[in-house]
Every structure is written in structure tokens, then in C-alpha cells.
Amino acid sequence: NLTKLYGLRLSNNNISIIENLDNKLNLENLILGDNKIKKIPDLSFLCSLNSLLLFGNEIEEMENLEHMVYLSAIDLSRNKIKKIQSVSGLYLVMLNLNDNEIERLEEDGFSVLPQNVGHLYLNDNRLDLDDKVTKEIIELLKNNIEEISYTPQKK
């Protein structure tokens, strides 16, 4: 009986697909860091899930997150993500996108970010901080986010 399992940590296991999770699980924390996961499946059936940590995988696209309304923390650092998407309707305390391949914040970048995100991490991406739109969005974000962390383009 796994209904009392609240946290599952399967980091460093060469997992490539997230599958076979039972909808009866009451998982609050799912940690699958440093694996070989390429896609984020729809996990919205995990109604208690508030922390999804998928750092250090091979994820290229932020997908299937929009219906995970109970999430408060997402860590997608050290992946291959190029664009922020699929999180605008979420109320996240923390979104970690450090060390990805995000080149710029789109003109609608402010609207694609989670509502009331407290901590946004964008370090070690390919952000062009000389880009006018990116600069403007970061200035707007500074006024609305408790903590924003970003660095110039990685070489």
C-alpha cells in the first residue's frame, strides 16, 4: 500500500521515461534529478504533488505543466530548455531554470511566467542582456518577484 508515500526520490538512475505512477499516490514531492528524461508527462492526476524536481535531465520543452495546479516548486535546471512556456497559470513559489538554453525572454515573456512566482532562477542560460525586450522584462520582473537571479550569456 503506497498511499502513504509522500516523497519519491529516484535521482541518478538512468530513467528515461516517467511512467507507471499510480493515481492513488499521495506524492507531494517527486525528485527525478540527473536521469535521462526527455519529456515531462501529464502528472496532473497526482493531486497532492507540490514539488517537481527534474534537474539534470535532457528535457527540451516545458510541457504538460499547465494542469498541475498544485505545484509550488519546479526545478528544471540543467536541461536543454529553449523557451519558457506552460507555466503561466501556476502559482509557483519557485521556478528554477538555471543552466538551460534560454536565449531571450519573448515579448510576451511576462505573461508566460507563473503568477506571483516568488523566486525565479535564470542563471547560466544564453540570455542576451543587451536585448532591449529582455532588459525591459527583467526590469518589470524585479518589481514583481521577491528574488530573480540571472547572469549574462554563457559562452
Topology, element by element:
Blueprint: E1 7-9, E2 29-31, E3 51-53, E4 73-75, E5 94-96, H1 109-112, E6 119-122, H2 132-144, E7 147-150
Could you explain the architecture of this structure?
The radius of gyration is 16 Å and the shape is globular. Helices cover 11% and strands 15% of the residues. The chain has helices spanning 109-112, 132-144; strands at 7-9, 29-31, 51-53, 73-75, 94-96, 119-122, 147-150. The protein is α/β, with parallel strands linked by helices and 155 residues long. A 7-stranded parallel beta sheet has the order 1-2-3-4-5-6-7, covered by helices on one side. The chain has 2 helices and 7 strands.
Radius of gyration: 16 Å
Element order, helices and strands? Answer: EEEEEHEHE
Strands ordered across the widest β-sheet: 1-2-3-4-5-6-7
Which structural class matches the secondary elements? alpha/beta
Major sheet description: 7 strands, parallel
Overall geometry comes to: globular
- How many strand units? 7
End-to-end CA span: 50 Å
The percent range for strand residues is 5-15%
Provide the residue-averaged pLDDT.
86
Number of helices: 2
Q: Report the uncertain regions.
A: none
Query: Helical proportion?
Result: 10-25%
